[in-house]
Write a structure and sequence with these properties.
The chain has 552 residues and is of the alpha/beta class. It folds into three domains: 73 residues, Arginyl tRNA synthetase N-terminal domain (Gyrase A, domain 2), CATH 3.30.1360; 248 residues, Rossmann fold (3-Layer(aba) Sandwich); 182 residues, Isoleucyl-tRNA Synthetase, Domain 1 (Orthogonal Bundle), CATH 1.10.730.10. The protein has a five-stranded parallel beta sheet. A three-stranded antiparallel beta sheet has the order 1-3-2. Helix 7 packs across helix 9, helix 19 runs antiparallel to helix 21 and helix 19 runs parallel beside helix 22. It is globular, with a radius of gyration of 28 Å. About 1% of the residues have low confidence. Bound molecules: arginine. The site of arginine has 9 residues, from helix 12 and strand 10.
Protein backbone atom coordinates (compact mmCIF):
# COMPACT_ATOMS: atom_id res chain seq x y z
CA UNK A 1 0.00 0.00 0.00
CA UNK A 2 2.87 2.33 0.81
CA UNK A 3 4.43 1.75 -2.55
CA UNK A 4 1.21 2.42 -4.48
CA UNK A 5 0.14 5.50 -2.59
CA UNK A 6 3.41 7.18 -1.78
CA UNK A 7 6.00 5.58 -4.06
CA UNK A 8 7.97 4.61 -0.98
CA UNK A 9 9.30 1.11 -0.88
CA UNK A 10 12.30 1.11 1.37
CA UNK A 11 10.80 1.91 4.77
CA UNK A 12 11.31 -0.54 7.57
CA UNK A 13 7.85 -0.09 9.09
CA UNK A 14 7.89 0.21 12.86
CA UNK A 15 5.04 -1.38 14.75
CA UNK A 16 4.43 -0.66 18.39
CA UNK A 17 2.01 -1.60 21.07
CA UNK A 18 0.42 1.64 22.32
CA UNK A 19 1.36 2.47 25.92
CA UNK A 20 -2.26 3.25 26.62
CA UNK A 21 -4.47 0.29 25.65
CA UNK A 22 -7.34 2.64 24.76
CA UNK A 23 -5.18 3.78 21.82
CA UNK A 24 -5.68 0.57 19.89
CA UNK A 25 -3.99 -2.78 19.39
CA UNK A 26 -1.09 -1.56 17.32
CA UNK A 27 0.35 1.79 16.34
CA UNK A 28 2.87 2.88 13.78
CA UNK A 29 4.86 6.04 13.16
CA UNK A 30 5.21 5.02 9.51
CA UNK A 31 3.75 8.34 8.31
CA UNK A 32 6.56 10.13 10.11
CA UNK A 33 9.04 7.72 8.58
CA UNK A 34 7.66 8.30 5.07
CA UNK A 35 7.41 12.02 5.46
CA UNK A 36 11.17 12.28 5.70
CA UNK A 37 11.45 10.53 2.35
CA UNK A 38 8.60 12.19 0.43
CA UNK A 39 8.61 15.66 1.92
CA UNK A 40 4.85 15.52 2.49
CA UNK A 41 3.39 16.41 5.86
CA UNK A 42 3.12 13.37 8.13
CA UNK A 43 -0.44 14.29 9.02
CA UNK A 44 -1.50 14.13 5.37
CA UNK A 45 0.21 10.80 4.87
CA UNK A 46 -1.37 9.44 8.08
CA UNK A 47 -4.84 10.50 6.95
CA UNK A 48 -4.44 8.77 3.61
CA UNK A 49 -3.20 5.66 5.36
CA UNK A 50 -6.16 5.67 7.72
CA UNK A 51 -8.54 5.82 4.75
CA UNK A 52 -6.82 2.91 3.07
CA UNK A 53 -6.54 0.84 6.25
CA UNK A 54 -10.19 1.33 7.18
CA UNK A 55 -11.13 -0.58 4.07
CA UNK A 56 -9.21 -3.68 5.20
CA UNK A 57 -11.29 -6.61 6.47
CA UNK A 58 -9.11 -7.34 9.46
CA UNK A 59 -9.21 -3.75 10.69
CA UNK A 60 -12.04 -2.52 12.84
CA UNK A 61 -10.93 1.08 13.02
CA UNK A 62 -7.88 3.27 12.34
CA UNK A 63 -7.21 6.79 13.61
CA UNK A 64 -4.59 9.45 13.23
CA UNK A 65 -2.98 10.36 16.52
CA UNK A 66 -0.55 13.11 17.42
CA UNK A 67 1.66 14.52 14.70
CA UNK A 68 1.45 11.48 12.46
CA UNK A 69 0.95 8.26 14.34
CA UNK A 70 -1.65 5.79 13.12
CA UNK A 71 -3.48 3.78 15.77
CA UNK A 72 -5.15 0.60 14.65
CA UNK A 73 -7.86 -1.57 16.20
CA UNK A 74 -8.09 -5.04 14.73
CA UNK A 75 -11.34 -6.94 14.43
CA UNK A 76 -11.98 -9.53 17.17
CA UNK A 77 -11.79 -12.16 14.47
CA UNK A 78 -8.32 -11.10 13.36
CA UNK A 79 -7.07 -10.92 16.94
CA UNK A 80 -8.52 -14.29 17.85
CA UNK A 81 -7.02 -15.86 14.76
CA UNK A 82 -3.56 -14.86 15.93
CA UNK A 83 -4.02 -16.72 19.20
CA UNK A 84 -2.76 -19.86 17.47
CA UNK A 85 0.72 -18.26 17.56
CA UNK A 86 0.54 -17.99 21.31
CA UNK A 87 -0.19 -21.67 21.63
CA UNK A 88 2.74 -22.44 19.31
CA UNK A 89 5.01 -20.20 21.37
CA UNK A 90 4.27 -22.39 24.40
CA UNK A 91 5.85 -25.43 22.80
CA UNK A 92 9.49 -25.94 22.09
CA UNK A 93 10.58 -25.05 18.57
CA UNK A 94 12.28 -27.82 16.65
CA UNK A 95 14.46 -26.30 13.95
CA UNK A 96 14.82 -28.26 10.76
CA UNK A 97 18.30 -27.09 9.99
CA UNK A 98 20.93 -27.87 12.56
CA UNK A 99 22.77 -24.70 13.49
CA UNK A 100 26.13 -24.26 15.18
CA UNK A 101 25.70 -24.37 18.97
CA UNK A 102 25.53 -21.46 21.36
CA UNK A 103 27.59 -22.09 24.48
CA UNK A 104 26.63 -20.65 27.85
CA UNK A 105 29.41 -20.67 30.42
CA UNK A 106 27.76 -20.02 33.79
CA UNK A 107 27.59 -20.78 37.49
CA UNK A 108 31.29 -21.77 37.56
CA UNK A 109 31.90 -21.64 41.31
CA UNK A 110 35.35 -22.04 42.75
CA UNK A 111 36.01 -25.34 44.43
CA UNK A 112 37.52 -25.11 47.89
CA UNK A 113 36.49 -21.48 48.10
CA UNK A 114 33.19 -20.07 49.31
CA UNK A 115 30.26 -19.82 46.90
CA UNK A 116 29.61 -16.10 46.49
CA UNK A 117 26.47 -14.12 45.77
CA UNK A 118 27.77 -13.53 42.27
CA UNK A 119 27.71 -17.29 41.71
CA UNK A 120 24.01 -17.41 42.61
CA UNK A 121 23.37 -14.67 40.07
CA UNK A 122 25.42 -16.38 37.38
CA UNK A 123 23.67 -19.68 38.05
CA UNK A 124 20.10 -18.44 37.73
CA UNK A 125 20.70 -15.92 34.96
CA UNK A 126 22.70 -18.49 32.98
CA UNK A 127 20.16 -21.27 33.36
CA UNK A 128 17.22 -19.06 32.38
CA UNK A 129 19.06 -17.98 29.22
CA UNK A 130 19.90 -21.58 28.37
CA UNK A 131 16.23 -22.51 28.79
CA UNK A 132 14.97 -19.66 26.60
CA UNK A 133 17.49 -20.45 23.87
CA UNK A 134 16.58 -24.14 23.88
CA UNK A 135 12.89 -23.37 23.86
CA UNK A 136 13.36 -21.28 20.72
CA UNK A 137 15.14 -24.16 19.05
CA UNK A 138 18.73 -22.98 19.34
CA UNK A 139 21.29 -25.71 19.74
CA UNK A 140 22.44 -24.71 23.21
CA UNK A 141 25.24 -26.11 25.33
CA UNK A 142 25.40 -25.47 29.05
CA UNK A 143 28.85 -25.57 30.63
CA UNK A 144 29.87 -25.22 34.25
CA UNK A 145 33.43 -23.91 34.08
CA UNK A 146 34.41 -24.80 37.61
CA UNK A 147 37.24 -22.99 39.28
CA UNK A 148 38.80 -26.28 40.25
CA UNK A 149 42.46 -25.42 39.90
CA UNK A 150 44.69 -22.92 41.61
CA UNK A 151 46.65 -22.13 44.76
CA UNK A 152 43.55 -22.51 46.93
CA UNK A 153 44.10 -26.28 46.77
CA UNK A 154 47.64 -25.92 48.04
CA UNK A 155 46.42 -23.68 50.86
CA UNK A 156 43.71 -26.13 51.79
CA UNK A 157 46.14 -29.04 51.81
CA UNK A 158 48.40 -27.12 54.19
CA UNK A 159 45.44 -26.14 56.38
CA UNK A 160 44.16 -29.71 56.61
CA UNK A 161 47.56 -31.00 57.52
CA UNK A 162 48.10 -28.39 60.27
CA UNK A 163 44.70 -27.88 61.82
CA UNK A 164 42.43 -30.57 60.45
CA UNK A 165 40.89 -32.76 63.15
CA UNK A 166 39.55 -35.40 60.78
CA UNK A 167 40.36 -37.18 57.54
CA UNK A 168 39.39 -35.52 54.28
CA UNK A 169 36.69 -38.07 53.50
CA UNK A 170 34.97 -37.23 56.78
CA UNK A 171 34.95 -33.51 56.01
CA UNK A 172 31.87 -31.61 54.91
CA UNK A 173 31.95 -28.56 52.69
CA UNK A 174 31.56 -26.46 55.84
CA UNK A 175 34.66 -28.06 57.34
CA UNK A 176 36.62 -27.23 54.20
CA UNK A 177 35.41 -23.65 54.26
CA UNK A 178 36.34 -23.33 57.93
CA UNK A 179 39.84 -24.52 57.05
CA UNK A 180 40.03 -22.05 54.18
CA UNK A 181 39.04 -19.18 56.48
CA UNK A 182 41.49 -20.38 59.15
CA UNK A 183 44.32 -20.43 56.61
CA UNK A 184 43.74 -16.79 55.73
CA UNK A 185 43.53 -15.72 59.36
CA UNK A 186 46.75 -17.51 60.24
CA UNK A 187 48.50 -16.28 57.10
CA UNK A 188 48.06 -12.71 58.31
CA UNK A 189 50.34 -13.57 61.23
CA UNK A 190 52.65 -16.02 59.49
CA UNK A 191 54.09 -15.10 56.10
CA UNK A 192 55.53 -18.51 55.44
CA UNK A 193 52.05 -20.01 55.05
CA UNK A 194 51.39 -18.45 51.67
CA UNK A 195 54.64 -19.91 50.40
CA UNK A 196 53.78 -23.32 51.79
CA UNK A 197 50.41 -23.16 49.99
CA UNK A 198 52.04 -22.19 46.70
CA UNK A 199 54.57 -24.94 47.10
CA UNK A 200 51.88 -27.55 47.68
CA UNK A 201 49.97 -26.39 44.61
CA UNK A 202 53.11 -26.61 42.55
CA UNK A 203 53.52 -30.21 43.65
CA UNK A 204 49.93 -30.86 42.66
CA UNK A 205 50.59 -29.38 39.23
CA UNK A 206 53.61 -31.60 38.87
CA UNK A 207 51.43 -34.62 39.44
CA UNK A 208 52.08 -35.55 43.08
CA UNK A 209 49.88 -38.60 43.64
CA UNK A 210 48.85 -37.88 47.18
CA UNK A 211 47.91 -34.30 46.37
CA UNK A 212 46.03 -35.48 43.30
CA UNK A 213 43.94 -37.74 45.53
CA UNK A 214 43.41 -34.86 47.92
CA UNK A 215 42.33 -32.62 45.04
CA UNK A 216 39.84 -35.21 43.76
CA UNK A 217 38.45 -35.63 47.27
CA UNK A 218 37.88 -31.91 47.66
CA UNK A 219 36.20 -31.68 44.25
CA UNK A 220 33.92 -34.61 45.11
CA UNK A 221 32.85 -33.21 48.46
CA UNK A 222 32.05 -29.85 46.92
CA UNK A 223 30.23 -31.22 43.88
CA UNK A 224 28.08 -33.56 45.98
CA UNK A 225 26.79 -30.66 48.00
CA UNK A 226 26.53 -28.42 44.96
CA UNK A 227 24.45 -31.01 43.16
CA UNK A 228 21.67 -30.88 45.72
CA UNK A 229 21.60 -27.09 45.42
CA UNK A 230 21.50 -27.28 41.64
CA UNK A 231 18.60 -29.73 41.97
CA UNK A 232 16.74 -27.32 44.21
CA UNK A 233 17.33 -24.54 41.69
CA UNK A 234 16.40 -26.66 38.63
CA UNK A 235 19.82 -26.14 37.16
CA UNK A 236 21.71 -28.63 35.03
CA UNK A 237 24.67 -28.66 32.68
CA UNK A 238 25.75 -30.56 29.60
CA UNK A 239 29.36 -30.41 30.71
CA UNK A 240 31.04 -29.72 33.98
CA UNK A 241 34.50 -28.95 32.74
CA UNK A 242 36.56 -26.91 35.07
CA UNK A 243 39.87 -25.19 34.79
CA UNK A 244 41.75 -28.37 35.72
CA UNK A 245 40.53 -29.93 32.49
CA UNK A 246 42.70 -27.45 30.58
CA UNK A 247 45.87 -28.07 32.57
CA UNK A 248 47.38 -30.12 29.72
CA UNK A 249 45.91 -27.94 26.97
CA UNK A 250 47.73 -24.71 27.69
CA UNK A 251 51.16 -25.48 26.33
CA UNK A 252 50.04 -25.42 22.68
CA UNK A 253 48.48 -22.02 23.22
CA UNK A 254 51.62 -20.73 24.90
CA UNK A 255 53.76 -22.02 22.03
CA UNK A 256 51.45 -20.53 19.42
CA UNK A 257 51.38 -17.16 21.20
CA UNK A 258 55.15 -17.05 21.36
CA UNK A 259 55.52 -18.08 17.76
CA UNK A 260 53.10 -15.42 16.58
CA UNK A 261 54.81 -12.81 18.70
CA UNK A 262 51.66 -12.17 20.73
CA UNK A 263 53.24 -13.34 23.98
CA UNK A 264 56.48 -11.60 24.85
CA UNK A 265 59.12 -11.92 27.47
CA UNK A 266 58.30 -9.70 30.47
CA UNK A 267 59.97 -8.91 33.74
CA UNK A 268 61.93 -11.74 35.41
CA UNK A 269 61.14 -14.21 32.63
CA UNK A 270 57.36 -14.00 32.79
CA UNK A 271 55.41 -14.22 29.56
CA UNK A 272 53.08 -11.30 28.94
CA UNK A 273 50.70 -9.97 26.35
CA UNK A 274 50.61 -6.28 25.48
CA UNK A 275 47.53 -4.89 23.83
CA UNK A 276 47.23 -2.40 20.98
CA UNK A 277 47.27 1.16 22.24
CA UNK A 278 43.73 1.99 21.09
CA UNK A 279 42.32 -0.81 23.25
CA UNK A 280 43.49 0.99 26.38
CA UNK A 281 44.05 -2.28 28.19
CA UNK A 282 46.88 -2.85 30.65
CA UNK A 283 49.20 -5.72 29.74
CA UNK A 284 48.50 -9.11 31.25
CA UNK A 285 50.65 -11.98 32.39
CA UNK A 286 50.13 -15.28 30.61
CA UNK A 287 52.79 -17.33 32.38
CA UNK A 288 54.32 -16.18 35.65
CA UNK A 289 58.06 -15.98 36.23
CA UNK A 290 57.93 -19.24 38.20
CA UNK A 291 56.23 -20.99 35.28
CA UNK A 292 52.72 -20.98 36.75
CA UNK A 293 49.82 -20.28 34.45
CA UNK A 294 46.89 -18.08 35.43
CA UNK A 295 43.13 -17.77 34.98
CA UNK A 296 43.58 -16.03 31.61
CA UNK A 297 45.86 -18.78 30.29
CA UNK A 298 43.23 -21.39 31.15
CA UNK A 299 40.50 -19.33 29.51
CA UNK A 300 42.58 -19.09 26.33
CA UNK A 301 42.99 -22.87 26.25
CA UNK A 302 39.26 -23.18 26.93
CA UNK A 303 38.30 -21.10 23.91
CA UNK A 304 40.65 -23.03 21.66
CA UNK A 305 39.24 -26.33 22.90
CA UNK A 306 35.65 -25.17 22.45
CA UNK A 307 36.14 -23.83 18.95
CA UNK A 308 37.94 -26.93 17.79
CA UNK A 309 35.60 -29.50 19.35
CA UNK A 310 32.18 -27.79 19.48
CA UNK A 311 32.44 -25.22 16.65
CA UNK A 312 30.01 -22.85 18.35
CA UNK A 313 28.44 -19.79 16.73
CA UNK A 314 28.66 -17.96 20.06
CA UNK A 315 30.07 -18.26 23.56
CA UNK A 316 28.32 -16.29 26.28
CA UNK A 317 30.08 -15.94 29.61
CA UNK A 318 27.63 -15.17 32.38
CA UNK A 319 30.02 -13.60 34.87
CA UNK A 320 30.19 -10.77 37.40
CA UNK A 321 30.86 -7.28 36.04
CA UNK A 322 33.96 -7.27 38.28
CA UNK A 323 35.62 -9.49 35.65
CA UNK A 324 35.13 -7.03 32.77
CA UNK A 325 38.83 -6.38 32.40
CA UNK A 326 39.59 -10.09 32.30
CA UNK A 327 37.11 -10.68 29.48
CA UNK A 328 38.28 -7.65 27.50
CA UNK A 329 41.83 -8.91 27.74
CA UNK A 330 40.76 -12.43 26.86
CA UNK A 331 38.72 -11.41 23.82
CA UNK A 332 41.45 -9.08 22.58
CA UNK A 333 44.13 -11.74 23.00
CA UNK A 334 42.22 -14.31 20.96
CA UNK A 335 41.71 -11.74 18.22
CA UNK A 336 45.44 -11.05 18.23
CA UNK A 337 46.09 -14.77 17.92
CA UNK A 338 44.09 -14.66 14.71
CA UNK A 339 41.76 -17.53 15.58
CA UNK A 340 38.55 -17.96 13.70
CA UNK A 341 36.22 -16.89 16.42
CA UNK A 342 32.57 -17.30 17.30
CA UNK A 343 30.63 -14.35 18.72
CA UNK A 344 32.05 -13.79 22.18
CA UNK A 345 29.98 -12.03 24.79
CA UNK A 346 30.56 -11.24 28.42
CA UNK A 347 27.00 -11.33 29.79
CA UNK A 348 27.63 -9.07 32.77
CA UNK A 349 25.58 -8.57 35.87
CA UNK A 350 25.83 -6.04 38.67
CA UNK A 351 26.11 -6.45 42.40
CA UNK A 352 23.30 -7.74 44.52
CA UNK A 353 22.74 -6.55 48.06
CA UNK A 354 20.09 -7.45 50.61
CA UNK A 355 17.61 -4.95 51.96
CA UNK A 356 17.66 -7.09 55.11
CA UNK A 357 20.66 -5.97 57.17
CA UNK A 358 21.37 -9.36 58.73
CA UNK A 359 22.10 -10.76 55.28
CA UNK A 360 24.16 -7.87 54.01
CA UNK A 361 26.63 -7.48 56.84
CA UNK A 362 28.41 -10.74 56.26
CA UNK A 363 32.08 -10.68 55.61
CA UNK A 364 33.30 -10.53 52.06
CA UNK A 365 29.97 -10.67 50.23
CA UNK A 366 29.81 -14.35 51.02
CA UNK A 367 26.49 -15.92 51.52
CA UNK A 368 25.75 -19.56 51.58
CA UNK A 369 23.33 -20.52 48.86
CA UNK A 370 21.87 -23.23 51.02
CA UNK A 371 21.17 -20.71 53.78
CA UNK A 372 19.44 -18.42 51.31
CA UNK A 373 17.22 -21.24 50.02
CA UNK A 374 16.47 -22.46 53.54
CA UNK A 375 15.63 -18.95 54.68
CA UNK A 376 13.36 -18.55 51.65
CA UNK A 377 11.62 -21.80 52.49
CA UNK A 378 11.10 -20.77 56.12
CA UNK A 379 9.74 -17.38 55.18
CA UNK A 380 7.45 -18.88 52.54
CA UNK A 381 6.02 -21.23 55.16
CA UNK A 382 5.30 -18.28 57.42
CA UNK A 383 3.56 -16.47 54.56
CA UNK A 384 1.43 -19.55 53.85
CA UNK A 385 0.41 -19.74 57.51
CA UNK A 386 -0.36 -16.07 57.63
CA UNK A 387 -2.76 -16.36 54.69
CA UNK A 388 -4.67 -19.15 56.41
CA UNK A 389 -7.61 -20.48 54.40
CA UNK A 390 -6.90 -18.22 51.45
CA UNK A 391 -4.15 -20.64 50.40
CA UNK A 392 -5.24 -24.14 49.59
CA UNK A 393 -2.70 -26.91 49.44
CA UNK A 394 -2.29 -30.50 50.57
CA UNK A 395 1.47 -30.13 50.56
CA UNK A 396 2.67 -27.17 52.61
CA UNK A 397 6.32 -28.26 52.42
CA UNK A 398 6.27 -28.65 48.66
CA UNK A 399 4.52 -25.34 48.18
CA UNK A 400 6.90 -23.55 50.55
CA UNK A 401 9.92 -24.85 48.64
CA UNK A 402 8.33 -23.85 45.33
CA UNK A 403 7.51 -20.36 46.59
CA UNK A 404 10.86 -19.94 48.29
CA UNK A 405 12.94 -21.03 45.29
CA UNK A 406 10.70 -18.93 43.07
CA UNK A 407 11.05 -15.89 45.29
CA UNK A 408 14.85 -16.03 45.25
CA UNK A 409 15.12 -16.70 41.55
CA UNK A 410 12.44 -14.24 40.50
CA UNK A 411 13.94 -11.63 42.84
CA UNK A 412 17.10 -11.88 40.76
CA UNK A 413 15.65 -12.36 37.30
CA UNK A 414 13.05 -9.61 37.49
CA UNK A 415 15.76 -6.97 37.76
CA UNK A 416 17.82 -5.62 34.89
CA UNK A 417 20.99 -7.68 35.24
CA UNK A 418 23.23 -4.81 34.17
CA UNK A 419 22.27 -2.73 37.20
CA UNK A 420 23.14 -3.27 40.83
CA UNK A 421 20.20 -5.03 42.43
CA UNK A 422 18.64 -5.01 45.85
CA UNK A 423 16.97 -8.13 47.11
CA UNK A 424 14.08 -7.58 49.50
CA UNK A 425 12.43 -10.58 51.19
CA UNK A 426 9.08 -8.86 51.73
CA UNK A 427 8.82 -7.87 48.10
CA UNK A 428 10.06 -11.24 46.87
CA UNK A 429 7.40 -13.08 48.85
CA UNK A 430 4.53 -10.67 48.38
CA UNK A 431 1.29 -11.92 46.92
CA UNK A 432 0.34 -8.83 45.03
CA UNK A 433 3.49 -7.43 43.57
CA UNK A 434 6.03 -8.24 40.94
CA UNK A 435 6.97 -11.53 42.60
CA UNK A 436 7.03 -15.29 42.16
CA UNK A 437 4.12 -15.97 44.57
CA UNK A 438 1.95 -13.53 42.59
CA UNK A 439 2.77 -15.43 39.42
CA UNK A 440 2.23 -18.79 41.10
CA UNK A 441 -1.03 -17.66 42.63
CA UNK A 442 -2.34 -16.31 39.33
CA UNK A 443 -1.48 -19.58 37.61
CA UNK A 444 -3.32 -21.56 40.30
CA UNK A 445 -6.32 -19.23 39.98
CA UNK A 446 -6.50 -19.82 36.22
CA UNK A 447 -6.09 -23.56 36.75
CA UNK A 448 -8.88 -23.71 39.27
CA UNK A 449 -11.21 -22.04 36.77
CA UNK A 450 -10.16 -24.57 34.15
CA UNK A 451 -11.00 -27.37 36.48
CA UNK A 452 -14.48 -26.03 37.07
CA UNK A 453 -14.97 -25.22 33.38
CA UNK A 454 -14.57 -28.89 32.46
CA UNK A 455 -12.94 -28.54 29.09
CA UNK A 456 -12.27 -25.93 26.46
CA UNK A 457 -14.53 -25.59 23.44
CA UNK A 458 -14.00 -23.80 20.14
CA UNK A 459 -14.38 -20.03 20.05
CA UNK A 460 -16.98 -18.72 17.70
CA UNK A 461 -19.05 -15.67 16.95
CA UNK A 462 -17.16 -13.16 19.01
CA UNK A 463 -17.98 -9.87 17.36
CA UNK A 464 -17.06 -7.49 20.10
CA UNK A 465 -14.53 -7.49 22.90
CA UNK A 466 -14.70 -5.96 26.37
CA UNK A 467 -11.84 -3.60 27.18
CA UNK A 468 -10.26 -6.14 29.54
CA UNK A 469 -10.61 -9.00 27.07
CA UNK A 470 -8.90 -6.93 24.43
CA UNK A 471 -6.13 -5.99 26.81
CA UNK A 472 -5.49 -9.58 27.88
CA UNK A 473 -5.60 -10.83 24.32
CA UNK A 474 -3.05 -8.27 23.22
CA UNK A 475 -0.77 -9.15 26.10
CA UNK A 476 -0.99 -12.86 25.29
CA UNK A 477 -0.09 -12.05 21.69
CA UNK A 478 3.20 -10.49 22.81
CA UNK A 479 4.57 -13.76 24.22
CA UNK A 480 6.46 -14.98 21.19
CA UNK A 481 8.06 -11.57 20.58
CA UNK A 482 9.06 -11.31 24.23
CA UNK A 483 10.82 -14.67 24.10
CA UNK A 484 12.80 -13.61 21.05
CA UNK A 485 13.66 -10.27 22.60
CA UNK A 486 14.86 -12.03 25.76
CA UNK A 487 16.99 -14.40 23.71
CA UNK A 488 18.51 -11.70 21.55
CA UNK A 489 19.42 -9.40 24.41
CA UNK A 490 20.24 -12.13 26.94
CA UNK A 491 18.04 -10.18 29.36
CA UNK A 492 15.77 -12.44 31.44
CA UNK A 493 14.02 -9.49 33.12
CA UNK A 494 12.20 -8.84 29.84
CA UNK A 495 10.43 -12.19 30.19
CA UNK A 496 9.93 -11.76 33.95
CA UNK A 497 8.38 -8.34 33.47
CA UNK A 498 6.10 -9.66 30.75
CA UNK A 499 4.83 -12.45 33.01
CA UNK A 500 4.08 -9.87 35.67
CA UNK A 501 2.08 -7.80 33.18
CA UNK A 502 0.23 -10.86 32.03
CA UNK A 503 -0.75 -11.68 35.63
CA UNK A 504 -1.88 -8.12 36.16
CA UNK A 505 -3.96 -8.07 32.97
CA UNK A 506 -5.43 -11.49 33.65
CA UNK A 507 -6.40 -10.56 37.21
CA UNK A 508 -8.00 -7.34 36.09
CA UNK A 509 -9.91 -9.25 33.37
CA UNK A 510 -10.96 -11.78 36.02
CA UNK A 511 -12.21 -9.06 38.33
CA UNK A 512 -14.21 -7.30 35.61
CA UNK A 513 -15.58 -10.14 33.50
CA UNK A 514 -17.51 -13.10 34.82
CA UNK A 515 -16.06 -16.25 33.28
CA UNK A 516 -17.97 -19.38 34.24
CA UNK A 517 -21.20 -17.47 34.79
CA UNK A 518 -21.02 -15.64 31.46
CA UNK A 519 -23.46 -16.40 28.63
CA UNK A 520 -22.20 -18.23 25.55
CA UNK A 521 -20.27 -17.47 23.38
CA UNK A 522 -18.49 -15.22 25.90
CA UNK A 523 -18.10 -18.08 28.37
CA UNK A 524 -16.19 -20.31 25.96
CA UNK A 525 -14.04 -17.42 24.84
CA UNK A 526 -13.14 -16.42 28.38
CA UNK A 527 -12.35 -20.01 29.33
CA UNK A 528 -10.11 -20.08 26.29
CA UNK A 529 -8.26 -16.95 27.38
CA UNK A 530 -7.90 -18.41 30.87
CA UNK A 531 -6.47 -21.63 29.53
CA UNK A 532 -3.98 -19.83 27.34
CA UNK A 533 -2.95 -17.54 30.20
CA UNK A 534 -2.24 -20.56 32.40
CA UNK A 535 -0.13 -22.12 29.64
CA UNK A 536 1.87 -18.99 28.97
CA UNK A 537 2.47 -18.40 32.68
CA UNK A 538 3.66 -21.95 33.18
CA UNK A 539 5.87 -21.97 30.10
CA UNK A 540 7.40 -18.61 30.95
CA UNK A 541 7.91 -19.42 34.64
CA UNK A 542 9.55 -22.75 33.81
CA UNK A 543 11.92 -21.01 31.42
CA UNK A 544 12.93 -18.85 34.35
CA UNK A 545 13.45 -22.13 36.33
CA UNK A 546 10.39 -21.41 38.47
CA UNK A 547 7.62 -23.97 39.05
CA UNK A 548 3.96 -23.05 39.34
CA UNK A 549 1.32 -25.00 41.29
CA UNK A 550 -2.08 -26.06 39.94
CA UNK A 551 -3.59 -25.34 43.30
CA UNK A 552 -2.70 -22.75 45.89
N1 LIG B 1 35.31 -19.40 38.55
C1 LIG B 1 35.24 -18.03 38.17
C2 LIG B 1 34.91 -17.18 39.38
O1 LIG B 1 34.25 -17.63 40.25
C3 LIG B 1 34.22 -17.77 37.09
C4 LIG B 1 34.49 -18.48 35.79
C5 LIG B 1 33.76 -17.89 34.63
N2 LIG B 1 34.02 -18.54 33.38
C6 LIG B 1 35.15 -18.42 32.67
N3 LIG B 1 35.29 -19.11 31.57
N4 LIG B 1 36.11 -17.58 33.03
O2 LIG B 1 35.27 -16.03 39.45
Amino acid sequence: MLAETFYVTDVDIQWERPQDPTHGDIATPVALQCSKKTGQSPRVIAEKLVDALSAEDSIEKAEVAGPGYVNIWLTPEALIESLGNVRTACTQTIKQEKEAPIIFDYSSPNIAKPFGIHHILSTVIGQSLVNVNRHLGYNTIAINHLGDWGTQFGKLAVALERWGDKQLDECSLDDLLALYVRFHEEAEKDNSLEDAGREAFKKLEQGDQELQRFWQGVVDITMNEMQSLYDRLHVSFDYTQGESFYEDKMQVVIDEGKEKGVFKEGEGGALIVEFPEESNLPPSIVVKADGATIYLTRDLATILYRISTIHPQAISYVVDVAQSLHFKQLFTTVEMLGWELPRLEHVVFGRMSFADKSMSTRKGNILKLQEVLDEANKRAKAVIKEHGDKIQTDDVDGLAEMMGQGAVVYGVLSQNRKMDMVFDWDKALSFDGNSAPYLQYTHARAKSIMEKAEGVSEIDNIDSLSAKERLLLNTLLQFDGVLHETQQSNMPHILAHYLYELCRDYNSFYNDNPILKAEEPARSFRVHLTNLTADVLKTGANLLTISVPDRM
